[in-house]
Amino acid sequence: MRAWEAPEIPALPMVGPAVRLHDTASGALVAATPSGDAGRLYVCGITPYDATHLGHAATYLGFDLLNRAWRNAGHAVTYVQNVTDVDDPLLERADRVHVDWMELAERETELFRADMQALRVVPPAHYIGAVESIPLVVEMIEALDAAGAIYRVETDLYYSVAADPAFGDESGYDRDTMLTLFGERGGDPDRPGKRDPLDCVVWRGERPGEPSWPSPFGPGRPGWHIECAAIARQYLGSGFDVQGGGSDLVFPHHEMCAGHAQVLDRDAPFARVYSHAGMVAYDGEKMSKSRGNLVFVSALRNSDIDPMAIRLSLLRHHFRSDWEWADAEVFTALDDLAEWRRAIALGAGAPAEPVVHEVLAALADDLDAPRATAAIDRWVAATLGVDGLADNSDPAAAATIHRVVDAALGIAL
After folding, report:
1. Helices (H), strands (E): how many in the chain?
2. What pairs with residue 280 in β-bridges?
3. pTM over 0.70
4. What is the set of domains in the chain, with CATH numbers?
């Protein structure tokens, strides 16, 4: 599956510091320095039936900062993202609106591509759909079956969470919490015939009216969790650097992905660091299709809102925080961008080197974009001054600030 066109990232006059991230599994701020020649990053992608709302955008912008911080620290990056282009929510949505599910998936995926390109998100090197990953999924299920981790309930195949001794280490949740979240997030804890209520489906046998593909286990389609596990193992290998996604994926999705892989790769964790973005609310509740409180990037763009103002609005919030969108934020961001551009247009300005150091240090410290953007705000204020006149102490300041805002924050001025 194709991704989207990559933005140009300018070179910086200095190398950024090593990155540290908050790791969900340990609860600590840990080094996220790439373990090999390139940083290996997997971020779970969309199920394409409601793209792209601001909750999606905030997550992908957060991990775009990591991609950029690694590059600015001198590392190559191998970034992988999936598209769950066949799954229950997509099929249910297609049925409800009387649209072919493949048409709906392609339409929403294309909209997502356009939004990511407009927001200047660096695209993944490998952008893989669930449908095209089916051979990888089948191969992984066969390996798990050989390891004794798979069993059948009617036409469905289940993964046994007991097969991974480290099950639960990623989320740190107790069993009662797991059971609650599993039921709320697509699991089937009450299904008769399962060995453990937390066991998850890896191959869903064919149902009338649903798409299916042939396999050695009978016709059907992949489970959600094994899709990402198979793609990550294929394109990043075991023990890759960072598994990213929204905080609603901590359990069951990332826990199950880790378990699937760790049964087969006993000597390495699925990922070295698990990093999770916060949830974005609107009108008092988390944005979701069921609540009807989604704010779409495309709707803002179609209202002639500069995509860079959307990006700046999102970067004003730390990527790991839960927060609530207010419509006024994007208009504040438009005003801020106008000031940034006015300061850049002066050419000379306040000294730039300390600002570059502060921006890069902030982003290396758990992707602290609010601290980084505040540093740019201070430079703009110092450059424009209270009377609107530039401080001409650094004749190359504007060019330097222009580059760091683009390379580190992804904002084109």
Report:
1. 13, 14
2. 323
3. yes
4. 20-282 (3.40.50.620)
